[in-house]
Here is the input.
Amino acid sequence: MSNNITRKKNADRKCLAIFTLSALFFVSAHTATAQEKKAVIKVSNEKASITDGENFSIDWKLDLKSNPDTYYVNVPHKKSTVRFNTDQDQLTFHTQPGETYTFTVLLKEKDSCMIRIVSALPPDLPATEVPDASQTSFPFKMVGSKIFFQGLINKKEVTIEFDLGAGTSVVNRNASEKLDLEFSGHTIVSNTDGVNKERKSTGNRLNIGGITWSGVPLTEVGNMQPYEDLIIGNGFFRNHVIEIDYDKKKFIVHKKVPTKAAGYTKLPVFYEQNRPKFKADITHNGKNYSFWFLFDTGRDGSMLLGEDFTSKGSHWQELQPLTTINGRKIVRLDATIAGIRFEDIVTNAADPEKPRGRPSLFGNQILSHLNAILDNINGFIYLKPNSRTNEPYSNYQDYLKEMEKIKKN
Here is the structure.
């Protein structure tokens, strides 16, 4: 499950407009350094864009109420080139880890807003205490294709789903009372229950294995299964390298990339709300597509084609449906991830004219076929086929059987 908390006080908030920090400030298009505090860039409307490195780009809406407003570099532990574009001007920042870059946006020659580019992780992530050992491991179990840990929240036992597709940490509404959580505020949540105002608890303490997190925020939601108490995501591990070993049912937190990664296929990732996205290829109706997909271990399904894919070019028109359900096309395709081919996947594609904000993704019916090492420090994922190669996923033969049942009924 993925939960999108709106207007967070960080890059996910989309608080400014997608600015493309580009070119050299004061040389043809300006170059800014950590010491240059007086840079000014003009814009005639509230829209702009940010590109960060080779792969990450977002829309950003200028918000004069947030002054200054902050963009956090997507992979802050290493150098990047961050480009900020408006309809009138552009800036480029060659960022260094730990540095801050400040400039002013002048809207319609009269209103101004200070913007900061920070090459560090957002301060609202939980603080982590990890043993000094080079790695810390603990077991996990699987329900369907989902991953679950056992842990403690404020010294009370909980069952925790690990969801790389989760943008925030949440607690099951049915578990809140037994956990004696204190709620001090509310936030807006968009999930499978719709868009709702939900209670938020802060300052919690979480333990899994030998690792402790403090200052853990939990948003209460009502769309979780009875056996799920909490859901946590990659925001708990942004300072670390994590490994999911489905063969041994072990989750391992590393201080650096293990040597075994040399035998895996290495792919770049970027992050949306700390959620990793990676590039994969799909083939449909004889046509090949390459696209960035969410690595969503919390989805107990094969995949999804969201509006981010179907709105591109003529993608929606090119998708030939097996059938259409509630405006969503049910399509048959092949996918290739890290050189591994998954054939005859049946999935659904979202109508771009009826956007619901769902990104394109691969779920854990597919992803659990691959052992994974996610290097959050340098922005890479390493993948290798595992012993679950023959585990089923939603495919064309299953679709035909289901259609036959429907016809008989």
The radius of gyration is 22 Å. Residues 310 and 316 are 5 Å apart (CA to CA). The chain has three domains: 4-118, 127-247, 257-408. The chain has four helices and 32 strands.
